[in-house]
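Field: COMPLEX_INPUT
Field: COMPONENT_COUNT = two
Field: RESIDUE_TOTAL = 895
Field: MODE = joint
Values follow.
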Amino acid sequence: MEQAVRRALVFGLIGGFAAWHLSLVGLIEAFAGRRLIGQGVTFSYVLLLALMLTVGYLVGRRISNWTGLLGAALAGLLVGLALWVLALLVATVDLRTVFVAASPALPDILTFNRGTGAVGLAVLLLVGAAVGFLGGGLTWLPATGRRAVLTALAIAVLVGLLRDVLSPIFPAPVMGFLFTPTGGLSLPGTATVLALALAVPIARQVLANRASSHRGSLSVRALQRRRVAARVIGVVFLASFPLWAGLFLSNVSDFVGLYILMGLGLNLVLGFAGLLDLGYVAFFAIGAYSMAVLTSPELGHFTLGFWEALPIAVAMTVVSGILIGLPVLRMRGDYLAITTLGFGEIVRLLVLSDWLKPHLGGAQGVTRIARPELGPFVIDRPQEYYYLILIGCGLAWFLSVRLRDSRIGRAWMAIREDEDVAQAMGINRVTAKLLAFATGAAMGGLSGALFASLVNSVIPQSFSLLVSINVVALLVLGGIGSLPGVVVGALALVGLPELLREFQEYRLLVYGVVLVAMMIFRPAGLWPEETRVRELEEAAEEGKTRAPAEVAAVTQDGA
Amino acid sequence: MVIAWTIGVLVLLLVLVGSYQTLAAGRYTAGQWFDFVVFGLAQGGIYALIALGYTMVYGVLRMINFAHGEVFMSGAFSAFFLADALARRGFLESRPIISLLALLAFAALVSMTIAVILERIAYRPLRGAPRLVPLITAVGASFFLQYTFRGLFGSGVRVYPTVPLLEGAVFGIQVKLIVVFLGALATLGILWAFLTFTRTGLAIRAVAEDMEAAALMGVDVNRAISSTFAVGGAMAGVAGVLYALVFAQVQFFMGFLPGIKAFTSAVLGGIGNLPGAALGGLVLGLVESVGPSLFLDGLGIPAAHQLKDVIAFTILVLILIFRPTGILGERLGSRV
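Field: COMPLEX_OUTPUT
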């Protein structure tokens, strides 16, 4: 009992603090316009409820008897109380000179429109306690059931959020059934989505069970056929995507594709060879600016076509990859990270300077970059660029797979595991690292060149540190070293924010949380690479017995 | 190595040629050079204070606290609100010294708290994990802090109130630059005394020397690490207020560049080495202030001040290539 109360107080306070944070940075209010279910339930409410649910779950997780449920309810209640106190504070005192997000509309949102009086307080406490209780109750479900329920809820929220995206894809009657005319999901729509989201994984589980019991009778050829079928469906989906997805979705998928390309490139460097490059944007910028300088008539140096410029741009990035790789060969870990970050900034500052303005356009950038031409046909719509980017991604993917399974790929991973041992085993550190930098740079450069042509202009602001952080974050989310992880990460970190416009403002806030939380709770990522899982497990084992201080940072050899 | 040396010699040559041409052309008067140097020293003092936070954490944990620039920013930003309130009530004019001390103490407290919480949440659970892991959480924490401040206090620039006492000049030197430089020196002195004479300071030094042995001798390692972050954070907070006195404005992104430059200073002096960090800060501050006019102007580069950050990054890269142990050249991390 005592333990339950203590945990409830701790997590209730943390939850209350988180609620204050979310409200005061403006996240809650930003989403108040996103109606998820009917007219009333907005994404703001869902965020607050999710917070209460999480707090309840965390309290109940360690306590297996009924006091856990009680503690969970208490913690939820505390979060509700914190929300009410904040609402009252914002309603009575004008905090706006300090906290810019403490707007007069905030109290209403925080109290579910029940006012800051006794009614509001009662509602918040009740809702908090009830949702916290439910969160505690989640710990009583078996793990598979819990996962199914949470996934179903998440899918329902996602469907509600992506209404505008879904409307061009599904026919009008389906949309009319699922959604209310002006708000979010309709009630029968919600029920259908939840039921489907629950039914599909259960059905898959049942099928998998049956399949595994029949595995003996299923011939190798049948399995192969199934795999081929899955691939064909995947290819058809990807190839036909812009035809039915519309302009907006094609545009978003173009950007996701460019980030996948960069992610695959950085994955070679960070995921395979274990070199944290925080200046990856430099290659993206060099690729884009090469394309701009070579093709734009504005600067008047060259006026090549897209296809002539593309290989030159990629070659430029390969050369710069080697040039950047050479001086940092002997650095490890954090030193490498900060040096590459320095390189990335140098590139940006040089591009921005008046000194190179006649050659690179300075702060105004360069416009009128060439479009790719195929005979008489000019590629200039996002739907058409999609195919170009898709081919680029496919190429990079193929290269990554072949490199990973090759001798050089194994050399990279050996360096990642232990550089000294790798060298002692006869791996040429210099060539291996330079190859990683050069191929990684080539993919970043290709992405940059395509980007420049797609948006038809380059400005220095497009090449800030945030791009590098974006790419690192998407790798971390998907799983460092994992190729499918790159796609998952890019969809979640680039695709979702593009679709949720209100979210743009808070993108980096969420990235920060994602980076920290993933490293603490799920270091292998959402779609981990197999060897990485093993490695992290071993490192965790080792970490228990070894003092962390023994590793030196910079190697002294070879000076 | 041949390539690296070629680059090194080339850079040196460029610096010499540029300096010669600037001096030969007589572009700047002696008074202007003097101003550059004074400004460089004040700026260097601020870098030195931030650099100490990097170097102490490095000495104890062998990791780079990438989010330290944001600790600096949070101190400067929070103190802005106190300064604003004080200025509005006229205290900044009537009781300038007490007001300034209050600002410094407040900023130090905020930065200290944030640094300690940062360690507790983002670094402690991952102690003993592969090296890359705490670095990634540090990057994450850095962005989380930046955008929290942006969300809470807005993305615009807030103008620090001026302290009337610090306006004006003595012997042709701006008073605030003198105060900033002396303030930085005084804070360095306090830090030295703290590490030398207090039990906590002793514990920090012991943990930096050998974590396991210190633990065996009964030192509470977690507490010592927390104190390291607390002390480093407090200094960053002080640096934040001094920075705001010089540049008179705060913004959520302000921690990024000083953070990197302070890191450069720490590396320049020899990371893990306290006097090294202070020296590195001063050197970098000077080079950055004098450099663009001295050797970039001479090379015929227009608007050379735009490239002063490039100088810092180039120094960082060159130091890491040619002398990763820094100016003072001690063995890595042999002292806090």
